[in-house]
Amino acid sequence: MLLAEDNPVNQEVARLILERLGCHVVVALNGQEALDALANTPCDLVLMDCQMPGMDGYAATQVIREKEAQQAMELSQQRQGIGRTPIIALTAHAMPGDRERCLAAGMDDYLAKPFTVDELRIVLERWFPKGSPAEGAAPAGDAGGAPIEVDAESSGLHGSKSASSLNVEGCLDREALNRLRDLDPQDAAGFFGRLVEHYLRETPTMIDRLCGAAESHDHESVQDAAHSLKSSSAYLGANHLAALFIEIEALAKSNSLDPVRAMIPEVSSEFDRVRQALLAEV
Fold first, then answer.
1. 2-155, CATH topology level
2. Res. 160: pLDDT tops 70
């Protein structure tokens, strides 16, 4: 199983979920690394983050499909067949046009971050109905089906949470934290603490990058930073902070950076609250 994901928090969570489901995982940090990994190690399925630095998931998928088409043409002359590797798009909260862009790039299915063990299991069973990829099951049918429709309300980022699901600081979703802890119940690998460490180390740098891009009118960099921040924040239960990044991404996509700059103080204040709450959880 190839996991192409650049965000350390998202990468750690996805890798551990896949391993719990019995998969051997190869990790790539961007599209080019994904291509290099596939060239060296054939994989049953690819989980492809859509937005990564350098070559993104869309471009990498197009290259993979072009190579498969070329190989199929060459092998057809020898009367041999070649399989199509299922590619599952990973994206942090569906935006308008994402589904169509995934299809156009050659992706086969769609999974919104943050996802749970059960949500990923359902996707894997759709492509490997007789068993997990680690058990050597063959993909079901031809790839090329439509990606999953993702309901924005079901992502957990816009929906309101009851007070009982929030911790005492009121900024972390207790259910989200419990889901993470359940991935490593004995904390034998120090999984939860490592996630918090990654998040608290990377997020200030990413927020600074977002602020700088907003000041320099770099819409694309604002969008990329917000896209990455919203999923890692959501995984750690910082739902209000994640919702702010969702709004910032949408504003940047519509070339509206004045409202983004006005939101920076709220983002900084909310992250300070989240940081204190997470430190209290470790």
1. Rossmann fold (3.40.50)
2. no
Among residues 231, 278, 272, 249, the alpha carbon closest in space to that of 12 is found at 231
Structure tokens, 162: 């009851």
Cα dihedral 223, 229, 235, 237 in deg (nearest 10): -110
CB 80 within 8 A of CB 34: no
Give tens-digit pLDDT for 125-140. 999 876 555 454 334 4
**Can you give the pLDDT at residue 169?**
58
Name the band, by pLDDT with cuts 50, 70 and 90, for residue 242: very high
pLDDT score of 48 more than 80: yes
In angstroms, the CA 9 to CA 12 distance is 5
CATH 1.20.120.160, the chain: domain bounds:
163-281
Instruction: From residue 244, give the alpha-carbon distance in Å to each of 32, 132, 270.
Output: 30, 37, 9
Distance CA 231, CA 125 (A): 24
Dump the DSSP string for 27-61: EESSHHHHHHHHHHS--S-EEEES--SSS-HHHHH
What stretch(es) of the chain map to CATH 3.40.50.2300? Answer: 2-155
User: Tokens in use for 202?
Assistant: 């990377």
Average pLDDT over residues 142-147: 41
Per CATH, the architecture of 163-281 is what?
Up-down Bundle (1.20)
Which among 224, 223, 211, 193 is positioned nearest to 266, based on CA atoms?
Answer: 211
Q: Which pLDDT belongs to residue 128? A: 85
